[in-house]
Amino acid sequence: MLINFILTIIVILALIAIVMRSLAKKKEQKVEQEVEVDDKTYTLEKMTAFVKRRLDEITKINLYDIGLSEEELKRRKKKKYELKKALKGCTYGDVNDKKYVKELIYDLLLKEYGVDEINISKAIPFDVPSLLTDQDKFDILIYMYKKEFGYEALTQLIKKYNLAVLKYVSGETKPSYVITGEEISDIYEKEQLVLNFSDKLNVVVQRIYQHYKGYSSIDEVRDMNIDGVSGGVSGLPESFLSQVAQTDGDYLDQVLENKVPRACDSIWIFFQGKSIRLAFLSFGTESELKRVCQNIYKYNNPGQLSDTNGYKINEMKDGSRVVVVRPSFSETWAFFVRKFDVKRATLEQLIVFPGKDKAIDLLKFLVKGARIISLTGEQGCGKTTMLMGMIENIYETMNIRVQETAFELHLRKIYPTRNILTFRETETISGQEGLDVQKKTDGSVNIIGEVATDPVASWMIQAAQVASKFTLFTHHAKTFPNLVTALRNSMLRTGVFTNERTAEEQVVQVLNFDIHLVKDFRGRRYIERVTECIPVEDKNEYTFDHKKEKTLEGKFDKFFDNATHYFTKVTDRKLYDYVNIMEYIDGEYVLTNKISDQNLRDMRSNMDETDMEAFDKFVEENWGAKIEHPDMKKEEQPKKRGRKAKQTV
Known about the structure:
Number of helices: 23
Strand order of the largest sheet: 11-10-12-13-9-14-15-16-17
Helix content: 40-55%
Oligomer: single chain
Structural class: alpha/beta
Low-confidence stretches: 27-37, 632-649
Mean pLDDT: 82
Radius of gyration: 33 Å
């Protein structure tokens, strides 16, 4: 009896298992093959919900419950892994993962959801231009231009229709850089675009993707070859609206009617030195702007953006730098994506105004001559890009070590065969510690992406004295005296020196040249000046003439002469002169004062024979002088024919 009972139980359990397996298999087949869709549900919202559900099902389904063959199981597992990887990677700015996910969405809509030539117009009214929104028209324009120009699509569109110019917008009294919805509508009419079904579906897929895994309205814009994009930096914050509601109802009505832009309507691009507002684009809601801010910085898990830690600086997978801020650190959620086009970072492409040949040669010789060089200027003037262009001229035999706040230079992408290693600050490792580590990595050249803190500035001066062949760095100083003062104050604040004059003396002995870049109100970027720092020698001007005097009065006169020299040195002795070697004058680069003899000799000694000859020729052609060599006899030294260097501000 007991044996029969056990056998009965086993048979029942086996039947249950077979039935469960059969049901699971049918359920999977139903999920993959049957999608019941009502004709009235072909809207972007319904299609987005369907795509989210299907992708969620594909990534979460248990493949072992379906009863697949071994070969099919391996294929499905590989597909599932690739999808999971792509869904994660596309949020980091990986264009390949984005392409993979969009292709899958395309197939789902076409094969499962039943999108066709007729019902696709319920999502976006392609056949009725008057019903298209500004964003619809822009999405179509970008898609069609991208088919022809790739990631230069936005650049081509702006240049073709001259959109990057100052213009007046209704309601504003001053001109600004802005692209309006009216301009987009006019361009759409002029283009007379003809879209086939595949084109239409691709536009719909992009719209679904950008609200699901992408960066909302800026998703395609961010991928373009422009200088950068930002959001949440203009318009009214949500916190301000509640205050307005209590005081000014009419103003609140204007805000709700979209007559006054909100923070979520704020989308700006940085294009060829100009900040341009895209007035026709919007995130739509504050929550969508918040979603973008919370996702755009996540590459390589930099930590959580929270109210306690209200900002994050990171890079994206394509090398773009991203800065995200949030309340209560900032008044609204905002992000800043800065892109660096490594392919265009050569001096020949960056220096374009008349006199460029002399300017390019000068910068090349400064680098080949192993001079300590600062690149100064305001934000967005091109310091980092210029630094990338100058690095090309460092000799191949020199090892390069880089310290940055966030990875921006990406030198190994440009020079994969060179000995280059980059460090950056983290939450646990400061810039000072990173620079300390650099000392022990056999580097010949130290490059500091930005001297932004006192410890880094202090260490940079110390390292330039003893730790490396030479140093290149960027700084935000406006004038050369400002640069010296800022570096001196950093030395004092970090406690390396306690005496102001001693600290300043150390700075000017280290610093050789400053390249100051400017971005004018038209967005043009150029080198305003190249300045040389010339330390003033501390000559011994004391005498013993008082011993020769016979009278006490005469001895006192000579003593007071020495005392005057002493107090002059202690109180107001000039530690350095600075002269402009090159200036930007009336739209042209002009070489002005000759480089000092000491720097000429030091530069020459660091060059190979070919560059040495070219440098001698450059100096003679532009300043009418030959370099004086210490090993030449006095009568053999060439006479100076250059203009006397004058101090300039």
